[in-house]
Write a structure and sequence with these properties.
Length: 222
């Protein structure tokens, strides 16, 4: 079926990989097009299969998940990457996001949430598990804070400013909230939030929600 989401799985643990394949194969909207045991295999599979999304483990031999994500996004920017790992304090999670991953998920995530994340990321959205969203922002704040002797970074100025509502949407987005959650917090329709998010991404000149969340720091919104 042409409307199915084409997925590549990359994980060096054969048992987990097999279980993940079995689980996702039950979802009619997904199609597993390749299984890989290291980052190099994932890159080569992407070249041949041109998937919609790669579920990428961070800890793999030959080429780890961060390096593979960077290589895939540089060569095939249309391929989305969703990072999978065991612990939410894995320091390479932030590196994977900087390398171009559009989301982060723990391996013990419930199956329904995993499928929702795949659908979101494959459609160009970002998905940050709540347990990591605050840590990503904290890490970004840490590396972005200049030393006393370092000149202050210039304030980002947009060609077209965000409206008050768009700023509110961006703030909730930066906290890792989905469109549904933002809609509930702001008492808006989910479709309205989706339109606001699209406008925010366009005005910020970014491709996804992760990059928008990071830019919110430069705008002084978080």
């Amino acid at each position: 079926m042409s409307d199915r989401i084409r997925v590549i799985l990359a994980d060096d643990q054969s048992l987990f990989l097999e279980g993940l394949k079995t689980l996702l194969s039950l979802e009619e909207t997904l199609e597993i097009v390749a299984e890989c045991h290291d980052g190099q295999q994932a890159l080569e599979a992407c070249r041949g299969q041109r998937p919609d999304i790669v579920l990428m483990d961070l800890n793999m031999p030959i080429m780890d998940g961060v390096a593979a994500t960077r290589a895939i996004k540089e060569e095939l920017p249309e391929v989305n990457v969703l990072t999978l790992t065991t612990f939410d304090d894995d320091e390479r999670v932030f590196e994977a996001l900087k390398a171009g991953a559009s989301g982060y998920l723990l391996k013990d995530t419930p199956s329904q949430q995993l499928v929702e994340a795949i659908k979101a990321v494959s459609s160009g959205q970002s998905f940050l598990q709540p347990s990591i969203a605050s840590k990503v922002l904290a890490e970004f704040n840490r590396i972005s804070t200049p030393a006393a002797s370092t000149p202050q970074r210039p304030v980002v100025r947009l060609q077209e400013p965000l409206s008050q509502r768009e700023e509110e949407v961006l703030i909730w987005l930066s906290r890792g909230c989905s469109n549904k959650e933002i809609a509930a917090n702001l008492s808006l329709a989910e479709g309205t939030v989706k339109n606001h998010v699209s406008n925010v991404l366009g005005k910020l000149g970014v491709l996804d929600r992760t990059q928008a969340a990071l830019m919110a720091r430069d705008l002084g919104l978080i």
